[in-house]
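Cross-posting from the modeling subforum.

Setting up a comparison between two proteins and wanted a second pair of eyes on the formatting. Protein 1 (sequence, then structure tokens):
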Amino acid sequence: MYSHITSNKRKTALLLVVFCAFAIFLLMVLGAVLEIDFYSSLILATAFSLGYSLVSYYLSDRITLALQGAKAISKTDDRELYLLVENLSIASGLPTPTVYLINDPAPNAFATGRDPAHASIAVTTGLLSTLSKLELEGVIAHELSHIKNYDIRLMTLVVVLVGLIMLISDLLIRVNLFKNNDSKESGSFFLVAIAIAFILGLLSPILAQVIRLAISRSREYLADADGVLLTRYPEGLASALQKISGFEGQMKRATHATAHLYISDPFAKGPQKTSSWYQRLFLTHPPIGDRIEKIRAMAIAS
């Protein structure tokens, strides 16, 4: 577990460095297309990237919760849920995270925050109405494991940072189209600059997707295992995942940028396994059928 925490902290630092470098590069290309001088572009791009990274580090959890329409609740709003989170937090040696509720019939949940002292757990109304207490306990224990392992910092930062890369790339494409249509210049340098910027604009979303998927999917297996160790009841989490995956609809506020945060992919259908390496390459979560099988294997082993 400690090596996983260290790895997550290292990946967070690397993600911020890679993001800053790539964002500066994209913004400087944008500056060149807009005919802003090199040094001005460098200063503006660096200042913006560093500032955005700091804002993302400290506020990405709030941004993510707002995007999902989550509302903070207290013990008086839902005493049973709050006490469940509180008791499991005490058992795992963590501060009690802020509890949020998402008004959505789809059963799902996620954890967010930059560290255990600034963490939140969000659950949907559909989760509360679908799961039994023991199943809900398994889900909360899983999310607390993400908090304890510092998965939340890395997973939440990706939402905001990848969003900006895609925004800049979209802006690059639009500016290129505008300049290409309206500019009367025909010099080879200008045409090459436009071509390079257009290619970068098209490739940036792909790179952003690669960065998002670079977060190891093994984090879900580890959180499943840690959650089971906390509750001492593997069937609770296994049954919960089966019910979550059996829901036919999709979440109203979920997006592909935030899908990796949830305990189960909000766009997946059913608990089927996925054996194709190509399909696995683009999954934000391991196949839920595999996860259920591994959890139940833990029950047999114990």
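Protein 2 (same layout):
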Amino acid sequence: MKKRPVLVPALALLAGLGGCATHAAPPLDTSRIPDELRAAPDAHLDEVLTARGQSVYECRRDGAVRIWWREGELATLVDRHRRSIGTVTPGDHFIAYDDSSVSTRRDAVAQVTAGTLVWSRSVAKDAGKPGARMAAQRRFSRTSVVQRIDTTGGLPPDALCEREGGTLLVPYSATYLFYSPR
């Protein structure tokens, strides 16, 4: 007697594993974002990314004292599927691995949690568009506003430093929300 493949248990196993697959992230509760950091009502939330990296500081003289001067963040951006998609670099630049980028300038901040970096809203100075036709399909090509929320860490343990020109890297994490015009 010839054995027939048993498909039913294999299908049941696959169906059961499907339940373990990552589901879409729950909707983001933007009601907890301070009013001064909100995006315009006509802005479209394109993407929510997390970042882990370091805040970069340089020791500079300020009058008679030397202080840690924040240069910006250097971090990896990760999507909801836990894939690395790009980086944040000092100067509020966001660079995606698809070769798109956006440079921003901060226009609002709020200290939401003591002892961490401020939450912020930044507006695009420019959106890197490598090619007119392909640009619309690239990750940051239409970005107009970036919010940084849910910050942890990122502040130096002491505001004063000893050696002018020295560098300090302080671990931080944050959530970044990327918006485009509707």
